[in-house]
Every structure is written in structure tokens, then in C-alpha cells.
Specification:
There is one protein chain. The protein has about 210 residues and is α+β, with helices and mostly antiparallel strands. It has two domains: about 60 residues, Winged helix-like DNA-binding domain superfamily/Winged helix DNA-binding domain (Arc Repressor Mutant, subunit A); about 130 residues, Nonspecific Lipid-transfer Protein, Chain A (2-Layer Sandwich). The strands form two sheets. A five-stranded mixed sheet has the order 6-5-4-7-8. It has a three-stranded antiparallel sheet with strand order 1-3-2. A hairpin with a 4-residue loop joins strand 5 and strand 6.
Amino acid sequence: MGDKWTLLIVRDLTTGPRRFVELQRVLPGISTEQLRSRLNRMVADGLLTRTRYREVPPRVDYELTPRARELLPVLAQLAIWGLTWAWSEPRDQERVDIGAILRLLPGLVDAHEHPGVVECVVTDGARDGGAFHATLTLTAAACTMEERPAVAPTARISGDKDAWIAALSPGGSPSALRVSGERPLAEQLLTALSTHRRAAPETVAEDDANTGR
């Protein structure tokens, strides 16, 4: 699990099966041979299934197994650690993939007081120059996600890339994000995101004293 690509492949398959070329697109920097080798190893290790379709041209889908899905909370905690200790303002020419962070939400949202469907939209800076849509379905048992627009969302959270970066940054605020629909459901999701923005441990006590919490 400790190589450079395995956990990123798990992250990018959380929203459902993908083809080889789709994984190449969401994993910049990986070579064709590296991806092929890593996928073969993950299939052999029982982390992925490979489904071949009798189509022209041939199509092969890769999908997470239940064993791999148990890694989602681990990935989410790694993201929290990174955003707590290593997050900084994006540098010039640095690309921030908000979609990659949103794919970790199924591992972060574990309280489902308000079931429903939430659509998260990043209105710019997404792949292919279009908006990124993530539709989360929350039930009493689980949180699942698909990368698609919602048909009839219970709540919707949207904003441009800068608004999402502000919502994720330590000390930042989700106030620039637009919320519509059932606010308790949207706020449940934003609360999960707020765990990314918590202060580093040595500053928590001072912050709490200053705010009266």
C-alpha cells in the first residue's frame, strides 16, 4: 500500500468503475506502463476487479472491491493530516484538484442525521474546462458518491475553485460557497469538510479561548 500510486487509484475509483484511459486522465504523472503494472498488481491482491466487455473498441472497467473500500476512512484521515499540517496557499501555476478531495467525502461523512442527496459542484478549474459534479447519497447506513449531476438533489453546494479552496484551507470559511435546498443536510456535509480546516494541535487551545468555545 505504500507505493506512490496505489492509494491514489483507490481514491479515484471511489465514485465507481473507470476505464484505463479515464484513470490516466485523473492521475497526471503516471506512465502507461506504471498504471498497467499497478492495476494488475491490485487485481492480483484482491483490491480491484477487472471487467472486460465484448465491444469494439474493447472496453475494460476497473472497480474497487469491498476490501479496497475499507481503505476509504484511512485515505480520509491522511487527507485531514495533510490539510492540517501541510496545506498552504496554492503557488503560481500550481494545480489544485478539488475533485480529488471531494472523492474522499464517503470516508469522512459517518453521521447521517439528515439523509438525502447532496450535489457538490465546482464551477471552474475542473477537468476538460467544465464543471465538476459530485452527487453524494447519504443514508442511515452509508455515504456513496457518483461523479455526475444530480437529477433532483435534496441540497446543493456550489462555488468556483477559489471558494472551495477557502472552505478547505485552515482558518478558512465555507461562506463563499452557495447552498440551496435543505440546509441541515448541506451543513452536515460542510461540517465533515470543516475537519480539514481544524487548527494544528498546539494552536487549538488558544483559538478556543479566543472564540469562547
